Amino acid sequence: MKTIKINGLVKRFPMGKGEFTALREVDLEFGEGEFAGLIGPSGSGKTTLLNIVGSLDSPSEGRVEVLGQSVGDLNAKEAARLRKESLGFIFQSYNLLQVHTVFENVEFPLLLLKYGSEKRRKMVMDALEWVGLTDKEKSKPSQLSGGECQRVAIARAMVKRPSLVLADEPTANLDAKNSHHILETMERLNRDLKTTFLFATHDDKVINYLRRKIFLLDGRVDKDELITAN
């Protein structure tokens, strides 16, 4: 089973008295364990496509299947369940809960899944170990650097071992050193856990790590490039 199957995807948004077409007849497939990116300038449709794959939005036309489920056919409760159980999200703004500790931020997805306290503890500490932050479990986000906050966001996205992680410009607020550290962490988790990663980016630092590059232009796939190892 493909992790993602996209056929004839069109997405339109109302604009004034007319409409704006953000995606035009997009056809794509992604298998298990890919480390791929949607690349393009602002307005090319990459974030819109990522939101539809993440069941945060739905197609105007066409079909998008994520882990065997048609996103356009899911009701709000079913879409929330898909996100809760199988998807991880990493955003450029981290979206951490400032009043909670690092541990509590990473634990949050497991509370939604109603895991017991002992299992939650082990899973959270495993995730913090993956990103090298076990010594920061009691810290608040305000006590962390930008790079550390993004590593907490990665731990939160990965703690339930999702099948698919969607990352929207995850290094936009980071310097080069922290960006490479973050990308190496995600690359290792992709390799070790077989999680599929799909990025939306125009950052060269991210692009250089991708093993598949899908270039979007004006809402269409302009080029789909598989990177072979040297």
How does this structure look, described?
The chain has 230 residues and is an alpha/beta fold. It has a single domain, classed as P-loop containing nucleotide triphosphate hydrolases (Rossmann fold). Helices cover 34% and strands 29% of the residues. The strands form two sheets. The protein has a six-stranded mixed beta sheet. The protein has a four-stranded antiparallel beta sheet with strand order 2-1-4-5, with helices on one face. Helix 3 runs parallel beside helix 5, helix 4 crosses helix 5 and helix 5 packs parallel to helix 6. The two termini are 28 Å apart.
CATH superfamily: P-loop containing nucleotide triphosphate hydrolases
> How large is the radius of gyration?
18 Å
CATH topology-level fold name: Rossmann fold
What percent of the residues sit in helical stretches (DSSP H or I)? 25-40%
- Helix and strand string, N-terminal first? EEEHEEHEHHHEHEHEE
Mean pLDDT: 94
The CATH first-level class comes to Alpha Beta
